[in-house]
Amino acid sequence: MSEQTSAYDTLIQGAKVFNEGKAPIIEDVAIKDGQIIERGAELDSTKAANVINAEGQWLMPGLFDIHTHYDLELEVAPGLPESIRHGTTSVVIANCSLGLAFGNQRDGRNDPIVDCFARVENLPKSILKSCADKVDWETPEEYLNHLDTLKLGPNVATLLPHSMLRIDAMGFEDSISRDPSASELSAMKNTLAEAVDLGYVGMSTDALPFHYLASAAHCDKTIPTQFAKYDEIKELTSVLREKDALWQATPPKDSAIGTLKTFMLSSAFFHGKPLKTTVVAALDVFNNFKILKLGRLLSRGLNSKLLKGDFHLQALGAPFKTWSDGAVTPLAEEIPELRRLNETDLEDKESRLKILNDPEYIKTFKEMWLRGKSGFNVARLKRIINMEDYAFNRSMEDMFVERCPIEYWQGKDFQQLFERVLDIKRGVEVASLSDEEAIIVARDFFWVSDEADFVLQTLRTFDLELSWCTTTANRDPKTTRDLIMDPLLMPGFNDSGAHLNNMAFYDVNLRCLQLASQGGDMDVSYMVKRLSKDAADLFGVEGGSINIGDKADLILIDPKALSSYDGEGNIQRVLRDEYQHHQLVNRSDDVVPLVMVGGHIAWQDNKHSEELGQIPMGRLLRANKS
Q1: Which of 34, 132, 472, 617 has the fewest CB atoms within 10 Å of its CB?
Q2: What percentage of the chain has pLDDT greater than the value 90?
Q3: Minimal CA–CA distance to 500: which of 282, 324, 279, 320?
């Protein structure tokens, strides 16, 4: 039948359909003009222009990624290919208070997009500046209109970023130095209210000690949102509560009282009406077990019948594995001695060397690195019972080298390499000693006597040519599964588009499905609902189901390929043409046979459609007003 006269554009036959948490059923699904128009057993294939045999596969709504930093990538690669290939058909942007809602916000001295994003995305400033140069909007309304013009791959919902809201109302310098005046706070509230009415799904803030500015004049300061005190947050979230919009936040990590006070804003008991709140993140942190326990306790308390909150910690369905290029890693930002190295530009090796060779810096670095590793003291006790102050893991045996000019060092942990260096210095025979390694050890590592010396010299010698990884949380798959299956938590926190050289969680929705499948079809159905309909409902947008009349945002999963998928083993470092910069990505080939957005095939047979990024497939998801 010709496409012009076909009743169906596409007919998907014989799939096991998962939808809205119901028991799965085997049926056909017919699509026409971007919508699902019919479902049932053995629909007439002669009515279809395109027939897809999905026998033995799972059909489900396209998945949501509720925590991304795709704001800049949308401007250079709106197809978002690294998410599409893993079955993600809707993304939420402008998390953690950062976004483009107010344009580039340049004031002649400051460049907020560059300053706020450089150390979050770990992109060269030249690339960020190029993106900022192309921005031609100035208001939240103009930004939504701009998003409507992009050739989107996935659908996009956006929060209003609090850091940029502060800059808009107060100016950049004042946004990082003082409280707002009464008139400035009023202006912020009015802007937020107008933005929600326009379709923004809520507002994002941030309080974690990992997000610092990148400009030389302000590199010791955090992003603007972190200068907001409780009263400012309370006033702004009152607007969200009134309009049934969402607040995305992070806890003040080192203040249990501050965390409790802040997130009581979700409670209807104290504020008359619950506030939809989603918070980063529920992680089983290896060197501090209390973080997860306190987070789950907070979730139970706030969502109890007494407090009547609407509170959702985001959970990561994978080991929290991060990479570092030399000292450049987001987790290093919380430690002053490591943060000094992150304050330098990526290209500025000379400045990092100057810091690493400074005698006073060497002294403070060694004190930090060795703290709690010997003797009998409070720091030692905290380390023994896994209650350290830092999320950063300083255990040498947990730090694995991925790339290094010395080939033998690749795949080894820092402890092995430290002991090897000591053996080489003592003249002990070691395996596979090359002339290059012998020369480097003799030239650079002759002075090394303890592990802090070794780390310092490794950073000096190799700088960004050294890439190493560590897993700081979610090491136990059973605990990770318990987290993502907890109805009080939300699977998410993939951070897609952020920390391009430091993490790769683009496939985590698939890893969540894989973990859920251990419990059978009904657990899979539950997880599908969490990753689609529940996410759409939380953010107040359409999507997340495959009922008749719905937009055809759907995916096929091969359950056999999913069951054998090795997420940790399929992380790659690729050169992204859009950035002319490397990025860590995931490759889940064969797991997702089909991705469809708005009735358009975006991914099939392990390759992107030629139309992806060339025509609009996804759409801007504005907040529902019903």
Answers
A1: 34
A2: 82
A3: 324
Backbone region of residue 427 per phi and psi (left: phi > 0; alpha: psi in -120 to 50; beta: other values): left
Q: Which residues contact 140 (CB under 8 A, 6 or more apart)?
A: 101, 102, 160, 191, 194, 195, 198, 200
Residue 475's nearest CA partner among 219, 289, 623, 280 is 289
Residues 484 and 474 sit within 8 Å (Cβ to Cβ)? no
The tokens for 394 are 């300083």
Classify strands 554-557 and 58-61 as parallel, antiparallel or unpaired. antiparallel
User: For 30-41, what is the mean pLDDT?
Assistant: 97
Q: Where are the alpha helices (DSSP H) in 264-358?
A: 268-271, 290-302, 336-342, 349-356
What is the pairing mode between strands 320-325 and 554-557?
A: unpaired
Contacts for 149 with CB less than 8 Å, ≥ 6 apart: none
Evaluated on CA atoms 308, 314, 317, 320, the torsion sign reads negative
The domain limits of the chain are 1-62+508-563+589-611, 63-319+474-506, 326-471
Please state the φ and ψ torsions of residue 93, each to the nearest 5 degrees: -110, 175
The residue among 453, 446, 450, 444 whose CA lies nearest residue 365 is 453
Spatial CA neighbour of 472 closest among 511, 501, 503, 496: 503
Whole-number CA gyration radius for the chain: 25
Residues 6+ apart with CB under 8 A from 131: 72, 75, 76, 113
Report the relative pairing of strands 88-93 and 35-40 from DSSP bridges: unpaired
Distances (CA, A) of 606 to 61, 587, 599: 19, 10, 18
Q: How many CB atoms lie within 10 A of CB 450?
A: 14
What angle do the packed helices 521-531 and 508-516 form, to 10 degrees? 150
Fold of 63-319+474-506: TIM Barrel (3.20.20)
As a whole number of angstroms, the distance between CA 418 and CA 281 comes to 34
Mean pLDDT, the chain, as a whole number?
Answer: 94
Return the SS3 of 26: strand
Q: Respond yes or no on whether the N-terminal peptide bond of residue 281 is cis (omega within 30° of 0).
A: yes
Residue with tokens 């359409």: 542
Please give the span between the terminal C-alpha atoms of the chain, in angstroms, as a whole number: 41
Tens digits of residue pLDDT in 71-92: 999 999 999 999 999 999 999 9
Question: Domain 1-62+508-563+589-611 is in which class?
Answer: mainly beta
Q: Quote the crossing angle between the two packed helices 508-516 and 477-485, to the nearest 10°.
A: 90
How would residue 380 be classed by pLDDT, with cut points 50, 70 and 90? confident
Q: Nearest 5°: phi and psi at 528? A: -55, -45
Amino acid identity at 30: A
Q: Are strands 88-93 and 63-65 parallel, antiparallel or unpaired?
A: parallel
Contact 303/488 with Cβ under 8 angstroms? yes
Burial of 260 (0-12, 13-18, 19+ CB in 10 A): middle
- Can you say whether the dihedral through the CA atoms of 447, 451, 456, 458 is positive or negative? positive
Task: State yes or no: pLDDT of 3 exceeds 50.
Answer: no
